[in-house]
Structures are given as C-alpha cells and as structure tokens.
Amino acid sequence: MDPLYIKNSSLIDLYDKIKSGERAGFEDGLRLFHSNDLLMIGKIADHLRRERNGKDTYFTLNQHINPTNICRNSCLFCAFYRKEGQQGGYRLSLDQIRRKLLDRIQEDIHEIHIVGGLDDGLPYDYYIDVIRLVREIRPKAHIKAYTAVEIAYLAERSGKSWGSVLDELIDAGLNTMPGGGAEMFSSRVKRKLFMDKLTAEEWLKIHALAHERGVHTNATMLYGHIETYEERVMHLLRLREAQDQSGGFLAYIPLAFHPENTKLHKLPKATGFDDLKNIAIGRIILDNFPHIKAYWVMLGKKMAQIALSFGADDIDGSVVEEKIYHMAGSDSEQMLTRKQLIGLITESGFIPVERDALYNSVNREVA
Amino acid sequence: MNARLNQIEQKILKKERISAQEGLVLFNNADLLTLGFLSNFVRTALHPHRRVTYIIDRNINYTNICVAQCDFCAFYKKVGSPEGYVLKKDQIARKIEETIALGGTQILMQGGLNPALKIEFFEDLFRFIRNQYPTIRIHSLSPAEITYVAKISRLTLEQTLIRLKEAGLASIPGGGAEILVDEVRRKLNANKTTTSQWLEVMETAHHLGMKTTATMMFGHIETLEDRIEHLVRIRNLQDKTGGFTAFIPWTYQPNNTKLGGEKASAFDYLRTLAISRLMLDNVPNIQVSWVTMGAKIAQVGLQFGGNDFGSLMIEENVVAAAGAGFRLSLDEIKRQITDAGYEPHQRDMEYNLLN
Known about the structure:
By secondary structure, chain A is an alpha/beta fold.
C-alpha cells in the first residue's frame, strides 16, 4: 500500500509501470525531466537501485594521471586543454609519471585512471608506454585508460585500426576504459560545442570493440549546457541499446558541465535539482547498467551524498590530483580519505563497499 | 519500527501534531526521501501555491567587539583588541543607501555584546535611520544583544524593548538561539543568554506586537534529542504568542573557531530542515540556508520543507568569518527558485509579497 503522498503524485503511473518491470520509454524520460516532483523521481530511481544493488554503495581508492593537457581539439566546454606553447600547457615525461606513481606506492590504490589531451607533440608510442610503465610499477592495479576519443586519435596517428590500437593497449596492460568523450550524442550539440570530437556512432563503435575484447567500459553524458531534454533522453536510450547488445558497460556517470574558465562561461551552473534528476533518470532509463556513479569530484561531496538516495550506488574514489574538473572551477576538494568516503555512505543509511575497477569487493575488513 | 513509523506518518498526513518522542523516532529512523515527502506534504498544505519567497536585505555588523566569546564564533574581537570596531553613523548610512539602491527593504543589524554601547546608542541610531530612510525596516539586535543592553543600561527587558521599539526597531532576528538547551549552551561557552533568557526576549517582544524569527545552529556537540528539544521550545512559545514568522535552521561553520570540528553533511542538513517543518506545525515559514549550504542543497531543500530562500544578503560577515563562502546574485536566487518549479516573490519580514 503506497502512502498518500505517493498515490497522489503525478508520476504514480510511471512508478507503477517501472515497478512492474516495464522499461521507461522516450516519452517517460521526457516527462521525468520536465517534472519538478524531485522526490518522486528519486523514489522511482531508489526502487530500481535497491532492486539491483540493495544498500551497497561502492567507492574505490584511485589515482588520476592526466599525462598531457595539450590538445589539438578546442571543445568549447573544456577548461583543461592548452595549445602547444600556451601558458599552463604541460606534458609529463615518463619519468615524471613514474615519480607520481612512486610517490603513492605505499597506498593501497586499486585503480589508475589515465586520460589526457590529443597531443600531436607526443609520439604514438608514448601513449602505449604510459600504460606499460603503470603496469610495471603497479602490477596489480587496474588500469582504466583513454577515452574513445583518444583511441580514435591514436588510430589516426598510427594508421592502425581502432581494434589494433585497443589490442596494443590491452597487451601493454590496459584493463578498462573510462566513459568520457561521449559528451552529448546529438549531432546538433556536437556541431556547436565539440566539432572535432567523435560522432555518437564512432564513440559507441569503439566501446563495442572494447566490449568484444572483454574490456569493460563506462559511459558518460555531459549535461547542463545547450542540450535539450529530448537530446538527453535520446543519449540515454542509445546507451541502453548499446548495453543490450554488448553488456560491457559497468557504470553510467552523468557529468555536469562546469562553465567557469571555458568559452561558455556565461552559462549558469547546473542546479541541485538538475544534478539529482540526471542521476535518478539515468538510473531509471539505464535499467541494464549495473551501476550509476555520483562522481563526487564533479558534484561536490554534498550533492554526491544526497545522490545516493536518488539512484546512485557508486561515489567513485579518493582522487588525487584531478585536473580536468578543477580547472573548470569545480570547488570540491582534491581528496576524500577512505574514512570520509565510508562516513558519507554510512551516514546516509547505505553500506560502503570498497571495490576494484570491476566492482569486486576488496578490503571488506577495513570497511 | 516500521509500524511505529507508519503510525507517525499517518498522524502527519492527518495534519495532527507529532510529539517530541515521535519527532525523534522520525529523526532516527525515517529515510531521507520519506522525510522529504512528509515535510513537503506539510509545506504544501501550508503553502498550496507554488511560491517561494526571498527578501532583499543587508546584514550590518555595527560592532565586532563582544564580551561573550562563544567557542563557535569566528567573528568576535575582545574589548581593547586593535581589530575591534564600531561603525560610525555615516558608514551605516552608506550601507543603507547601497541596500536601497539594490531594491532592499530591510537592514539586519547585529554585532556583539559591546560594553560601550548602551541603550542611548541604539535609540539614537534607530531614530536616525528611521528619519533618514523611512522605507527601511529595522530588523535588528538578537536576544543576546537586547538582554545585554538591558543589563548595562540598568533597565528591565520590557523597558528596553519599549524604548527600542519607540526609536524604530520593528522586529527582532532569531539569531543567538544556537541550541536552546542549557547544558549544550554551557559546553559551547555560549554565555550570552540562557535558554529562558532567549525565549523571554522573544516572548516579551511578541507581547509588544513585534514579530521575530527563530534560528537553530546545529552540527556541533548537540544530540538529536537536543535538536528536538530546541524545536519543542520554539513550538511551545509560538503556541502562546504566535509571534514567530519563520524558522531558520543552519549548520555550524567551524573554521577559525575555538571549537573547531567538521561541517555537518548535506544529508544531516536536509533531514534537520524536514524535521523542523514537521515539528513546527505552527510556524508559517521555513527558510533554507544557501549561505551555509550552497545554492544546490538550498534548492533541494525546497522539497524538504523549505518555502523561503532567505535573503539576498548584500553583506554578511559572521558566518563568512567561519568559512561559509557562498555568494548568490538576485538573478541567481530567482533562477534557483524557478528551476525548481516555483515562482519567486520578493517579500518583507512579515512575509507580505512585494511583487
């Protein structure tokens, strides 16, 4: 028996539909984005989250390496990239990367996350060598590296196929791929904001190739710029379709656009309502994705904690030296300790599970 | 436990008052979304329209010299400190003129317990403001300051309030309530007023026809029981007088304070906001605190019992000294409200709509 406040909700039919196991369609997704019944949207998402993950809430201890911020692309929403010779541009040597890894070698890091720019000044082999180096220094850590955009770039640079580049990277030690670079699948948005990047089809194809090779990947959506609700829902539905085919996606991560220091700085920041709707509606539409991540570096720890009650079951990790979002004005801390992460999760009534990159539980006794 | 929660939920949905015990059961056991639904139910019953209000006013901290020296405060300076100040009349006048230029309707003057400032100082200042800026409402002096002014001016509380009111004081902000449990106040070294002194100022003011607000500063050393006790004390007085227009729970800001510690989480904030709405069935308005929680959580707070976005706060120094760094423009406040599906309306202290 649903209480009055549920029964009287304008979304009650959708709640019943989802509870009966039916999938949300395009119109349902639109209705959810247009609705201001935030609590009810949360309730539907929370229902699905509990069905799939119970109270388990994942976190990990990871290290981010951004090897270069020199990028031949000039995406309007990005505050991270620099051009060759421009102030603030950097390119880490393999030795510098080695030092960064060794600096934290005592820590029980499960995952090394590597993404950077499309740097014409670096040889193709550098990108492969970075992976090999990490594998050498951290033989047990999971290496999550290079977005689909970087894979396509490396293929272009080397004249190799996407598949061969992936094979070489896997051979060097790559385990999984991050979900970045998906941005917004709409070709309208792409023309306006990230001309040089991959089309939706290309991005999805590269992920499918990874999945074929047993490499799990994540998926993202960049929201809060010029996109429409229709475009958001289409993006989610395309991800769901791809997942139906391959089953290779681990987590979906909605990313709020941070306008500061980008060419779109006049756009307002995403609101709290929009952040929570994106988490919740992601959970509702992507019923075949095992995990929905509230990436605290982007959301801030306050919103990330609240997102756990709105469908998210992963809060990501203790991230050291995250540059991409912080250069765009994210005011979140650079790091949360294991204790703080566990505290955020436990306080919200969920069960913290320290995970590796494949969501296997590790360090049960510590948690 | 579920049966117990259900029973309390039914009471709320029948618009019955819940007891302190029941409030505590909810606080300890109800999940976040349930507290949201229940508080939103009560909020919607009290405010069926889709309005969210805000006020344009300015905090003017006329002095930072304070003898109270509370452990949770990062603003005060001791008597004789080279950093101590008392604002001059022309400085205050300039701040008021800036406030009027920004569409402001009110000033909130709060400072410290400064032994040099007796009642004549305030009478003179309020008269000056009333004569110079008749459209500006003087919503000023927390109960701690009023108690202290009465003491050093050798007046009764009532005499003090009558004289301040005659000089132009229109209403009293609810600051300095902290947690209205004496044991907690002692531990915080909040020696400025006892619980009963704080309540007495408000009761006297209400009897004189002055409206006031009430606050709660939480997330330091208090227990959930203490928070509930605080809410019950406000509710009891409101039953007697009806003089509170709004309640504002906000989180302790630990930076640069003697007490130190961590900031309360967003989870704790939203729950406390919701519990405030549920317990204070007789206080018409609940404010969200974007100054301490940021715009995002404040906006989400509109689904957890909040129906007012607080003030544009042209100037704020006290929580800023303790690490609350959020700033919002008027357009941004309106956008936050609209984006959540509500209509923004400017209001005055008594919640009359101004647009």
